Amino acid sequence: MSTRSRLHIPHPSARPGDTPDFSYLELSPAGAVDKPPIDVRVRDIDHLSHGLVRVLDDEHKAVGPWNPNFEARELQVALRWIMLTRIFDERMQQIQRQGRISFYIQSLGEEAISIAQGMALRPGDMCFPHYRNQGLYLYRGCKLVDLMCQCLSNTRDMCKGRQMPIMYHSKDANMFSISGNLGTQYPHAVGWAMASAIKGEDHIAASWVGDGSTAEADFHHAVTFAAVYQAPVILNIINNQWAISTFQGFAGGERRPFAARGLGLGIPGIRVDGNDLLAVYAVTVWAADRARRGGGPTIIEHVTYRGAAHSTSDDPTKYRPKDEWDAFPLGDPLLRLKNHLISEGHWSEKQHAALEKELRADVLNAWKEAQKSGTMTEGPYLDPATMFDDVYAETPEHLEIQRKQMLALED
Amino acid sequence: MAQMNMIQAIRSALDVVMDKDPNIVILGEDVGYFGGVFRCTDGLQRKFGEHRVIDAPIAEGGIIGTAIGMGVNGLRPVAEIQFADYIYPGFDQVVSELARLRYRTAGDLTSPVTIRTPCGGGIRGGQTHSQSPEGIFTHISGIKTVMPSNPYDAKGLLISSIESDDPIIFFEPKRIYNGPFDGDPDKAAVSWASHPKGEVPGGYYTVPLGKADIVEPGDDLTIITYGTLVHVAQAAAKLTGFDAEIIDVRTLAPLDVSTLTDSVNKTGRCLIAHEATRFSGYGAELAATIQEHCFWNLEAPIERVAGWDTPYPHAFEWQYFPGQKRIAAGIRKVMEAG
Ligand SMILES: Cc1ncc(C[n+]2csc(CCOP(=O)(O)OP(=O)(O)O)c2C)c(N)n1
Question: What residues does the Transketolase-like pyrimidine-binding domain cover (chain B) (predicted)?
């Protein structure tokens, strides 16, 4: 040790021009982490926050105590949802590049998390997503065309043009509204879960934040309340290694995994291979069962990689190696599930290609349909007068006056 | 002299003062290796090292709170909040701590933090990348609130802010980072190269805090504004043909009362324009000040043009933004009254 204090500045393992290096990631072999009963004493499972729950092994087999033993058909459906999410993202990214929507965020490389958790939760459970959970919206019943119309701010937009693209919500699907402000949804989820317990219902809540956002105070408020009241909630941390230009070490991920964030408060944490749909599903079911039966909150850290740019406003080659994703040891969730199905004899390249073609057509058709409700350059347009609605339950007089002033200037 | 846009001018200000004073440090999200999402700190970490240009966790309360502590311990921190819309998680640290430390310790403990943050709309940012929360901060005693409208002022005011022993909130209207904007989104973008205030000295200079700027002299009416709307007001005045005296407030608090009131006492008519929402907005303070000092010389009621009292709607950005039409209508109203 040195004789004076020093300032530690976290450094990512690789910057542009360097060879990608994921040696910092602690991995457990598939099947190696035990699966405790849900009524286990919290202090006896601290190790789950440091291991890595994995079901799919390097030979594409599903192994170990967390294997949910899916039917082939169920996994084919899951694959379909992952593929749909990716194709949807690809198309929307392209549409943004053509200047037809103002902004977009892809979930490339993280799709399995949304789909697996969509499968593990019940429709009555409430989701408080972040902006890379589009797969969850789709899985829980939001139509492609409705998500597209939100991105277009058109006449069919659920937000009536008030939000930037990707900031969806769906009351019917029990999907909360995405905020631009990071981490704010976390305490909402805890409060919703507390209300569910107060009302004596067995619905649970789930929320998601990125690794970077765990630094926000709202994250810590949520964890504290969840622990104190043992709220029936699943608190997910999507550790995709990067915030914008800062890697996960800037949120404090260097010495302890994010899954361990709740241990001091007695919240169990599970670290899971976020690119392994089977593993994510299994840990989510475990956490949901616990929550539904009075066991309280669970923190799940999903280890994954942000395959695309942060958003359409960002150029990741300025701060990380171009080929970093290729070197990511947990691979691509879509390919892993596909290879598993193929190796089990339940899928083929031919079926895959056919499905991809079908989904591309679905997405294209949805886009054609969405444009009928208006684009940035072609009508029909939303009525600007609606801008003054919903500020309050009833529009006060000063806003009615402003509405008239605005309309008078419009014509 | 060099041609600079506002981003380059801000970077140059930081560069110049950091060269001069080793106690100046920068901290914020993505400000270090990457150089900031708007590139305002690009290259500074390479030059001044990782102990002086510090990438921060995504925690605005943490950024402002630790900056206060650094300031108490002799450093002169410049904190960047990535968007003004994200300053709220740090609000308690600004209001209860930064603004009050000097007062509650009778001057024994102080912290000269400058908080830089991009504000304003016009970039299709929707309600969480477009806000103008300056009025919330001018309401707090103990901090100074600054908003430049051009590269020359941006550099000079930022240097004055950083060197000030008082805490400062420094708002940067992001719509005019790359060029002046007259309020017409359909016109091709203009660069600062064609604007006189795009000429910026490369070295050290200051623009004093607490001094408004008469951007254009005139006799018919006074337009008091700041930030992006300085340029929109100039275009709107041209549209109406009236000879407007246009004043850029620059330092919102403390306010340069005499420059404003001298002008209104001369013209007898006053329009106040800002992008922030109208109700309880900063314009209300300006109107009250003008009324107190100029009542007997006023020939018409003071008019305010501001953002509507709604969140900034993504789809209706240009119906929301107080553009040329709205300001021109305000000018006509002031001129036709009385
Ligand atoms: C309160 C707040 N501060 C800053 C930002 C700007 N910002 C948007 S996304 C982002 C990075 C978030 O990273 P992470 O939480 O890791 O999520 P990821 O994008 O990797 O999924 C930042 C800094 C914001 N939206 N809200």
Answer: 4-179
The reply to whether ligand 1 has any atom less than 6 angstroms from the CB of B89 is: yes
- ipTM confidence score: 0.96
Question: Could you tell me the residue range of the domain that residue B131 belongs to?
Answer: 2-200
- Chain A residues with CB-CB distance to B309 below 8 A: 391, 398-399, 402
Q: Contact at 8 Å (CB) between A198 and A155?
A: no
Beta strands at B199-200 and B2-3: parallel, antiparallel or unpaired = antiparallel
Kindly state if the Cβ of A133 falls inside 6 Å of ligand 1.
no
Q: Using a 6 Å cutoff on CB, does residue A158 contact ligand 1?
A: no
Q: Do A163 and B126 touch (CB under 8 A)?
A: yes
Q: Let me know if residue B113 belongs to a domain.
A: yes
Q: Cβ contact (<8 Å) for B308 and A181?
A: no
Tokens of A271: 């670290």
Contact A64, A30 (CB under 8 A): yes
Return per-residue pLDDT of chain B as tens, 338 residues. 899 999 999 999 999 999 999 999 999 999 999 999 999 999 999 999 999 999 999 999 999 999 999 999 999 999 999 999 999 999 999 999 999 999 999 999 999 999 999 999 999 999 999 999 999 999 999 999 999 999 999 999 999 999 999 999 999 999 999 999 999 999 999 999 999 999 999 999 999 999 999 999 999 999 999 999 999 999 999 999 999 999 999 999 999 999 999 999 999 999 999 999 999 999 999 999 999 999 999 999 999 999 999 999 999 999 999 999 999 999 999 999 97
Which DSSP string corresponds to A219-282? HHHHHHHHHHHT-SEEEEEEE-SBSSSSBGGGGT-SSS-GGGGGGGGT--EEEEETT-HHHHHH
Q: How far apart are the first and last CA of chain B?
A: 47
Q: Which of B165, B200, B235 is the last residue of a domain?
A: B200
Distance B59 CA to ligand 1 centre (A): 10
HSE, CB side, 13 Å, CA atoms: give it for residue A291. 33
Ligand 1: nearest atom to the Cα of A110: 21
A209 C-alpha to ligand 1 centroid (Å): 9
A243/B29 Cβ within 8 A: yes
- The number of angstroms, rounded, from the C-alpha of A133 to the middle of its chain's C-alpha atoms is 3
Q: How far is the CA of A182 from the centre of ligand 1 (A)?
A: 6
Q: From the CA of A162, how many Å to the nearest CA of chain B?
A: 4
Residues of B annotated as catalytic (active site), given as ranges? 129
CATH of domain A42-307+316-380: 3.40.50.970
Mutual angle of helices B324-336 and B229-240, in 10-degree steps: 50
